[in-house]
Amino acid sequence: MWFQQLIREQTGCATYMVGSSDCGECAVFDPLWDIEPYLAAARSKGMNITRVIDSHSHADHVSGARRLVEATGAELFLPERIETTYKATLLADGVSIRFGEVELEVLHVPGHRPEQINLLVRDHSRGAEPWCILTADCLMVGDLARPDLAQDGSAGAATLFRESLPRLLALPDFTEVYPGHVAGST
Ligand SMILES: [Fe+2]
């Protein structure tokens, strides 16, 4: 399995590519507007971008998901509860996207945004245990995401603590965490 973090330094936005060495396909999670870094990274590994996934409706950057889909012919995946006017394959809690040895399991983690999802990443060439989780705008480094952008802050915080955080805490201790923002975030 190939795993690559791509960071936009100006805003601290962290995005991810996960690829299968077996089948040469890769997925992009939360792509930014400038899609060239993803195309270049895939080219450098000889991989085809076949799946593009947004974790939620972003308030801090413009998604490059549909540009990437247009450029590559990849399939677009969005959270089941997202409100959009364009076509995408909707991801419900618990479903998995599988290609080659890679499995991306969807966890619905509301609180920051009602529709937000995380991806639990498994590399079946290593084993069935998860290797890492892409926490997008849910779990940050030493913090949780803002709960007050899409709903009342108290309600959002309660949802984060009661529904979403326990699911992340229940994961095995060795599960690596890769958030959607790092230092430098606005
Ligand atoms: Fe967000």
Describe the structure.
Residues 12-181 form the Metallo-beta-lactamase domain. InterPro entries: Metallo-B-lactamas, Mito_Persulfide_Diox, POD-like_MBL-fold, RibonucZ/Hydroxyglut_hydro. It comes from Candidatus Polarisedimenticola svalbardensis. This is MBL fold metallo-hydrolase. Pfam families: Lactamase_B. The protein has three helices and 13 strands. It is of the alpha/beta class. The protein has a single domain, classed as 4-Layer Sandwich (Metallo-beta-lactamase, Chain A), CATH 3.60.15.10. The strands form three sheets. The chain has a six-stranded mixed beta sheet, covered by helices on one side. The chain has a five-stranded mixed beta sheet with strand order 7-8-9-10-13, with no helix packed on it. Fe (ii) ion is lined by residues 56, 58-60, 112, 137.
Quick summary:
This protein is an alpha/beta fold and 186 residues long.
Question: Approximately how much helix is present in the residues?
Answer: 10-25%
Bound molecules: fe (ii) ion
User: Which regions have little confidence, pLDDT < 50, spanning 5+ residues?
Assistant: none
SSE order, one letter for each helix or strand: EEEHEHEEEEEEEEHE
Number of strands: 13
Kindly report the name of the CATH homologous superfamily: Ribonuclease Z/Hydroxyacylglutathione hydrolase-like
- Biggest beta sheet attributes: 6 strands, mixed
Coarse morphology: globular
How many domain units? 1
CATH second-level architecture? 4-Layer Sandwich
Strand residues, percent: 35-45%
Q: Give the count of helical stretches.
A: 3
Helix/strand class: alpha/beta
The residue-averaged pLDDT reads 95
**Distance, first to last CA:** 32 Å
Radius of gyration: 15 Å
CATH topology: the name is Metallo-beta-lactamase, Chain A
Order of strands, main sheet, comes to 1-2-3-4-5-6
CATH class: Alpha Beta
